[in-house]
Amino acid sequence: MSELKIYNTLTREKEIFKPLNAPHVGMYVCGPTLYSHAHLGNCRTFLSFDIVFRYLKHLDYKVRYVRNITDVGHLESDGDEGEDKIAKRARLEKLEPMEIVQLYAVDFHKVLDDFNLLPPSIEPTASGHIIEQIEMTKKIIENGLGYEVDGTIWFDVEKFAKTYPYTELSGRKLDEMLDGTRENLEGQEEKRGRLDFALWKKAKPEHIMRWPSPWGEGFPGWHIECSAMSSKYLGEQFDIHGGGMDLIPTHHTNEVAQNVACCKKSPAKTWMHTNMLTVNGQKMSKSLGNSFLPQQLFTGNHPLLERGYSAMVVRFFMLQAHYRSTLDFSNEALQASEKGFNRLMNALGLIPNLKTASKSSFNINELKENIYSALNDDFNTPVAIAYLFDGVKTINSINDGKEAITEDDKLVLHRLFHEIVLDVLGLKKEVSDIIDSKSPALIQTILDFRSEVKKDGNYSKADEIRKKLEGLGIQIKDSKDGPATYTITL
Ligand code: AMP
Ligand code: ZN
Predict the structure, then answer these.
(1) What value does the mean pLDDT of the chain take?
(2) Cβ–Cβ < 8 Å for 346, 399
(3) pLDDT tens digit sequence for 15-33
(4) CA of 63 to the centre of ligand 1 (A)
(5) 55 Cβ partners below 8 Å, 6+ apart?
(6) Is 351 domain-assigned?
(7) Whose CA is nearest to atom 18 of ligand 1?
(8) What is the model's pLDDT at position 171?
């Protein structure tokens, strides 16, 4: 069997995975900032790490998976400008910041549960680790890489860059970064270097979330929370650190700098970054107005959606792209995934009842090797799924009496499909999913029937059907030159 290789952003190479303390593996993933609902793009990133978590566990590693919740310190600019995202939302909605966090934390967990993501081993919050963040900031100051200006502590990037390759992770050039930053950013005139970032910020009188510190009342910067929490729960050095690719140039670059400045150690051996979910080639993001929520996806209630799709179909759709490739959302792709998902799950259901023979007509070990080599090749789920479909073809042929399988091979096949499809890919078929997956076809049947009724001139019956469907939250849109379409309004 091949060995697991993971692409490391730091070295830009696929490396054989060797945990620092096998069989234990420590993995830290940057979690959400809970100031609004998580959109489907966010879900894609967490799903990619769910596969990593599941596969490592499947390989018998004992994984401690830490995924944080950012509930303080993430400013609107993603840098050191603007209002705290959560505090702003709290102000606008006249709620306590922690009410905002709780509201969206409940929603976030529900959505990830719908997509069948396993909960992480620890889910620490930034606001629960203020002391650790202050301690780390103190050490960075002691080591000469942090300085105070009027109650705010800045990280001295240019001084740090003299002894450590600050841009190692991003591959950017420091000079170009310096040229690219705007001069005299508002409210940041006091920092020495243009790339310096805040470890701790002085709270203005109107700032709601504030804590006492050796430098007066304030709140932590966004990046320091991950450095403090990862080293608290996984040690100064651990195996894997992950997040979306958009976090590389600033958040993760600064995280590395903080850990090295504090403890002289780069935190993670392997950095993994997931690529973006796009819509018509553009990153799905709330600010661009092209994002939608998982709930809208399930009901189909969004202008970009022709109809609803079940959570497992969406999970399967996302696994059909490699986590380092972009994945473009489209109704066609989701509909194709729905067909594929149903075929796969049907084949899984056929295995226990396959008739056995004295000889197999195919090589089960080759199939198994192929699936594992794909997963061992940097978690290549699309290739693994393609091989699973070779298996599906064989299962269907055996079921039709065109191919044969021995009792022993059937046991191997059963275990292989069970473990890969259910445990590693995390797909499941529940009664509600079966109903969900059949609903579009059922609604279409009713629409077809209604158009027949209209063709026969029975408009009152057609109206009656429309009203009944409306009562169920299914809105029909008639079209002059094409078939009627529908949306679910619930
Ligand atoms: P945020 O809550 O904005 O900090 O984002 C949480 C995570 O979702 C981060 O790891 C982001 O990189 C990731 N993310 C944001 N937008 C997308 C997208 N369109 N596709 C994939 N991941 C995304
Ligand atoms: Zn982080």
Answers:
(1) 92
(2) no
(3) 999 999 999 999 999 999 8
(4) 23
(5) 4, 375, 379, 424
(6) yes
(7) 41
(8) 94
